[in-house]
Amino acid sequence: MNEIQSSRAMPQKTFFITGANSGFGLAIAQAALEAGHRVIGTVRSQTARVSLLERLPDVRVVLCDVTEFDRIPAIVAQAEEDHGPVDVLINNAGYGHEGVLEESSLEEMRHQFDVNVFGAVAIAKAFLPRFRERRSGFIVNVTSMGGLITMPGISYYCGSKFALQGISNVMRAEMAPVGVHVTALCPGSFRTDWAGRSMVRTERVIEDYDALFDPIRAARHAKDGKQPGNPAKLAAAVLQLVASDTPPPQLLLGSDALRFVRERLVQLEKEITDWEELTRSTDG
């Protein structure tokens, strides 16, 4: 029997979703509400708050910038005081950065990691003692297929998602003994704003990279809005995931993610085999 249960059979839960006003966050919030769950959604501004409530009036909206690390514990405490214990954390807030590594500033890298890594970890850390004390809870850290494979031109993004992927795996091992689930969600290309208005793009200045990178940037623009992944179907998959008693360490979503990660695993096995003799030579 499939370990993943139907989301309809899951008792009502309270979801805390960061970045709930767009993309995956909005899709998951809508699906959770339609399934009868309670949703607390974070946004960064009053404008975003109004916009979210216009679309999903039943969401409990909380103002939270995930880079304001010192404020997060109090925000989480207030959210639970106002709306009750949270059962599921969807660590979704994040954005993409596109740029050749040599051309991209360290400040751009720092902000990418502040949001995608430190923000996600700060939110998770605010919930960990609460979940641990209750001996229950589910953390879904939204990483990416870019946390398992790499592509030219998104080094800062991949770096941030690789970091969150590794942290999620350790978090899972540490929280399992107290009954808390942790899964890294690894989507491929979906029809969200990731490659559009949400993408930060570094200006091109070095001619030597034109032949490699300009076609990549042009193709990403051309495919924006035409990606194979459907956010509503991802949201339905997330509800199935959190209904499972035996969730996986990471869950790939999208046929492109499946293909690219499998290709990388084959390549990695070949690299290990090709260099095995040298690898073993350092023992003793």
Describe the structure.
The chain is α/β, with parallel strands linked by helices and 284 residues long. It is built from 9 helices and 9 strands. The chain has helices at residues 23-34, 46-55, 72-83, 106-134, 155-175, 210-223, 231-242, 255-274, 276-280; strands spanning 14-17, 38-43, 60-63, 88-91, 97-98, 138-142, 181-187, 200-201, 250-253. The strands form 2 sheets. It has a 7-stranded parallel sheet with strand order 3-2-1-4-6-7-9, with helices on both faces. The protein has a two-stranded parallel sheet with strand order 5-8. Helix 1 links the parallel strand 1 and strand 2. The longest helix is centred in the middle third of the chain and has 29 residues, at 106-134. The radius of gyration is 20 Å and the shape is globular. Residues 1-8 have low confidence and may be disordered.
